[in-house]
Amino acid sequence: MQKLEKDLKNKLKNLQNILRKYKNILIAFSGGTDSTFLLKVAADTLGKKNIFAVTAISETYPKNDLITAKKIISKFGIKNIFIKTNELKNKNFACNTPKRCFWCKDELFCNLTKLAKQNKIDAVCDGTNYSDRNDYRPGMAAAKKWGIKHPLFDTKLSKDDIRILSKKFNLPTWNKEASPCLASRFPYGSKITVKKLGKIGKAENELRKLHLKNLRLRDYENTARIEIDENQFKEIFKNNIYKKMVDILKKYHYKYITLDLEGYRTGSMNKTIKN
Length: 275
Hints:
three-stranded mixed beta sheet; 11 helices; 7 strands
C-alpha cells in the first residue's frame, strides 16, 4: 500500500512539473473522470486564471455529459466556453470507417488550436490517460497533427490511478463511468446520422434508469446488442429487469434484442478491424 501511495505521489508530482512548463493552458473538457482530474490539478498548479476550459457540443455526445460538465465548471469557477463542432457534416466521419475518430478529433482539435492562438495560450491539453494506449485510437493521430499535449499519458497515470487520486481530491467524477461518443454504438460502415444518434441517446437514457452498469447499446439496424457488466446478468433475470429492457427497446423499433454474453468491454466494436 505504501509503495502504491509513493508511486501515485511521484506521478502526481511529475504531472505538476509538466504543467508548470506552461504559463497557461487550454483543456479539452468533457466533464469525464480524466479531464476533470486534469482540470483540478492544473488549476491548483497554475492558478484558475491561467486555465481555459473548452467543452464541445455535438449530437455525438451524450447530453448528460454536458450537464455534468456545466456543474463542474460552475463549482470550480474556471473560465469556460462551449463550442459547437460539426463533424457530422464531414463525409469522412459520417460514413463511419475505422478512421471515424480521427475525423472527429481533427474537427475538435482544429477549433481548440484556433482558440488557443486567439487567446495567446501556450498549450492545448486533453485527458488521454496511460490506459488508453491499450485500445485502437485513431484520434491520437489527429492530436499529433495539431500538437495536442497529453499530460496524464506522459506521466503514465492510468485510469485506476486517476480514480484513486480523484477520490482523494473529493472530485464528483472519481467513479463516473466512461462515456464515449454515441457514434461508437454503430458498427463500422453503418452511416452516422443525427436521427440515429438521437435514437441511441434516448434509448440509453431510459435503460440507465434501470441502474445498468457500464451500459452500451450497440445498434445493428433492426437488432440491439446490449453490453452491461457481467456481474449484473443474474440480477436482470432474477428480478425480471430484462423484460423492462425489452419493453423500452421495442419502443425504439428494434425487432431483435440481444444481451452480449461477454459483457461490457472497452472497444468491442474494434474487434472487426483487421490488423
